[in-house]
Amino acid sequence: MTRLAVPKTYKLYIGGKFPRSESGRVYEILSSKGAFLANAAQGSRKDARDAVVAARAAFPGWSGATGYNRGQVLYRIAELLEGRRAQFIDEIRQSEGVPAVAAARQVDAAIDVWVWYAGWADKYLQVAGNGNPVSGPYFNISTPEPTGVVAIVAPQQSSLLGLVSVLAPAILSGNTVVLIASEKFALSAISLTEVLATSDVPGGVVNVLTGSAAEIAPWLASHADVNALDLAGAEALDWISLQVSAADTLKRVLAPESGVPAPSVERVTFFTETKTIWHTKALI
Amino acid sequence: MSFLDYAPAPESTSILHLKKSYGLFIDGSFVKGHGKSFSTISPATEETIAEISSANAKDVDAAVGAARRAYDRTWSKLSGADRGKYLFRIARLVQERARELAVAESLDNGKPIKESRDVDVPLVAAWFFYYAGWADKLDYAGLGANPRALGVAAQVIPWNFPLLMLAWKIAPALAAGNTVVIKPAETTPLSALLFAEILQQAELPDGVVNIITGAGETGSLLVNHPDVNKVAFTGSTAVGRAIAKSTAGTGKKLTLELGGKAANIVFDDAPIDQAIEGIVNGIFFNQGHVCCAGSRLLVQENVHDEVVDRLKDRLSTLRLGDPLDKNTDIGAINSKAQLERIRELSNIGEAEGAERWTAPCELPAKGFWFAPTIFTNVSTSNRIARDEVFGPVLSVLTFRTPAEAIAKANNTPYGLSAGIWSDKGSRVLAVADKLRAGVIWANTFNQFDPASPFGGYKESGYGREGGRHGLAAYLTSSAVASAATTRGASK
User: Fold this and answer.
1) CA nearest to A188, candidates A210, A215, A171
2) With an 8 Å Cβ cutoff, is A136 touching chain B?
3) Domains identified in chain A, total number
């Protein structure tokens, strides 16, 4: 007799915990052939608002950690992802219907993206900041700082790589994130939160909502405690209204991209604020 | 037991699994050296720890040959991301074996375990972690797109921070794409040899890092080897000068991190409690075996007596003894030769008229020890104010105005570091501007971080280690590299 498998309940990830949607709703995640894979939580406006509260609460601690510390945490994510490679390959195969080789390539690329961004945590400041030769007896230095809470619509056509390619650059500088996963390919997003939860990423730094981006994104775009909006995966949505709505609180907005965003330092610096400090020098 | 006496709390050496003798680490494995082997001893007990091979000309040739092959065949062909992954592995292995490395370092070097455990080894891991991240980001290093590695780097490091200096040298070299032959100091080879085991665990390709042991002659053979593209040396100014001469005209890129005679300037508005701790840390950290040590204390005249009195009080509480004891503040002097140099310079200080004060502490019968010592009434022409003592000896001078402090601070051929203590930010920054030194610490001292460049002005050497600037020592821009290729072809 074959052993009966124990399937996983896919839930949300908010404040380091795995709640169901407060709305009590779920939606079906189907395989590429249309077979039932799992019920995912269908996140609501309330879930989104809870996630923003959790993200805001986690911001002081995470942005206050050293770059070295954040870099090690990101690298730890890569280490643990490597250890769960098989699980992610399996989920990607089922959801996307791609061959094992392609799924493996996606997982490996996602791991390498974590490593690449991990290295930036204690360096982006050295590339994006500088001393300024002002004409006067002043010490003057400009350094980037994280902007705050970033809401992200993850790429919708990629299970893992798209998600990682928008998440890593946002959090490495110290931002905290509320991320809407790919609606169709949500399994990898939820499994990734299990990796995050065991990688020394403090609870609340990353919050993941599954469900309809069209339904959830407007609440985040208009939320007054969200500082920036990454519309990477919002191509198919009415993203211009999201951007208009974000303008009320002058959120920084990244426009949609088709496909998976390539690793770039610009993605890091976009979600930072440049702070310039002047200090007098005595005349001696 | 008085309230300052602590029960012994020695770190166990059972974590070490040392071999009786160590060979040279060439092309991925340990081989016997052809020079005359020597013992490495614990400076705290004078007991032999292990027998160490010495590399002669033939061995140096083999090591450079292995590094060249590794450069041509594997390392220069790897992606930056893959080089980075090896460095990340090394960083993690150092973290995993941190306790063992710290014990080995304190045993072989004589530094207190609290320093090797809390400073040296964590910084070693941090250095590899930091430069690991640079390996695939060299386009951002500041040399334009596609900067190139130099080739084979010959590196010679000192005995004061054996493993940390190794990390400062190897991490940026490998991140930039070079291969390495490195020679640790003859009195402190142990941690480098344990590090070779870490390289094996990391499965670093053979020949990318070669570790050869020996004395000054081995180092000279290495830096003068014709197939070396880059020389990096940390040590005395005298040897640095000799290397600058012998590499002149060879086209080898050279960086030198040499001696220092740092001024630690205390203004009368300084936070005195912090300043006292900073002065103690500045000169008595690592028994004063620190090139950037704050060995010249410049105190504003009106607070001189208060600072000196409080300094003496504080020094009287330092615990000198077994480096492996967790409560030890001051460990052993690294070698007999160094102890003799410290004694000689201190005697000259007294003979030249400075007033000597020694902390009241008992010195162990065996091993090399020197109690924390302060000289007051020092004048700028005294040798203890000019020469690098490289020991737990502080010279105290006074000044009245900021201009006088700056003039005295800069009155040295060295220019590695300086300290400023004042509550007034505008004064700190103005004085910092006028100091001719590569690292300035304000209201702190002896801070090190892989993200922060370190290196000297004037006869303290040239080039920087650490930070983005540290990469430049191991890279050349693609424009310069192509120009060099063209010149070579037209010859």
Assistant:
1) A210
2) no
3) 1
3-state helix, strand, coil in chain A (%, to 5): 45, 20, 35
Q: Name the residue among B169, B265, B235, B243 with its Cα closest to residue B388.
A: B235
pLDDT tens, N- to C-terminus, chain B (491 residues): 566 678 999 999 999 999 999 999 999 999 999 999 999 999 999 999 999 999 999 999 999 999 999 999 999 999 999 999 999 999 999 999 999 999 999 999 999 999 999 999 999 999 999 999 999 999 999 999 999 999 999 999 999 999 999 999 999 999 999 999 999 999 999 999 999 999 999 999 999 999 999 999 999 999 999 999 999 999 999 999 999 999 999 999 999 999 999 999 999 999 999 999 999 999 999 999 999 999 999 999 999 999 999 999 999 999 999 999 999 999 999 999 999 999 999 999 999 999 999 999 999 999 999 999 999 999 999 999 999 999 999 999 999 999 999 999 999 999 999 999 999 999 999 999 999 999 999 999 999 999 999 999 999 999 999 999 999 999 999 988 888 777 765 54
For B313, other C-beta atoms within 10 Å of its C-beta total 10
Q: Which of A123, A127, A134, A269 to mutate to test the interface with B (most CBs of B within 10 A)?
A: A123
Report d(CA A189, CA A154) in Å as an integer: 10
Distance CA B294, CA B394 (A): 8
CA A136 to each of CA A142, A232, A279, A281: distance values in angstroms, whole numbers, following the listed order? 16, 43, 11, 9
Q: Residue B315: name the closest of B383, B232, B375 by CA.
A: B375
Kindly state whether residue A10 falls inside one of the protein's structural domains: no
**CATH at A92:** 3.40.605.10
| A17 domain-assigned | no
Rama region for A49: left / alpha / beta (φ>0; ψ in -120 to 50; rest): alpha
> Is residue A11 one of the residues assigned to a domain?
no
Q: B402 and A284: CB-CB below 8 Å?
A: yes
User: Do the beta carbons of residue B177 and residue B206 sit within 8 Å?
Assistant: no
Nearest Cα to B462, choosing from B295, B232, B224? B232
Q: Which of A194, A168, A189 has the alpha carbon at shortest distance from A73?
A: A168
First to last CA, chain B: 77
Query: Residue A99, exposed/middle/buried by CB under 10 A (0-12, 13-18, 19+)?
Result: exposed
Write out the residue range of the structural domain in which residue A154 sits: 26-280
Q: How far is CA B484 from CA B74, B142, B146, B245, B481, in A?
A: 23, 20, 15, 22, 5
Distance CA A57, CA A54 (A): 5
Q: ipTM score here?
A: 0.94
Tell whether B10 lies on the interface with A, counting CB pairs under 8 A: no
CB < 8 Å to A139, chain B: 429
The rounded radius of gyration (Å) of the Cα atoms in chain A is 20
Place of tokens 């040295």: B412
| CB spacing of A123 vs B137 below 8 angstroms | yes
Alpha carbons B220 and B110: distance in angstroms, whole number: 26
Asked, for residue A9, whether it belongs to a domain, the answer is no
Longest dimension (CA), chain A: 89
Which token pair is A144?
Answer: 């980037």
Q: CA torsion angle for B177, B179, B185, B190 (degrees, to 10)?
A: 100
Chain A residues in contact with B425 (beta carbon < 8 A): 279-280
Alpha helices (runs of H) in B376-477, residue ranges in sequence order: 383-386, 402-409, 425-434, 469-472
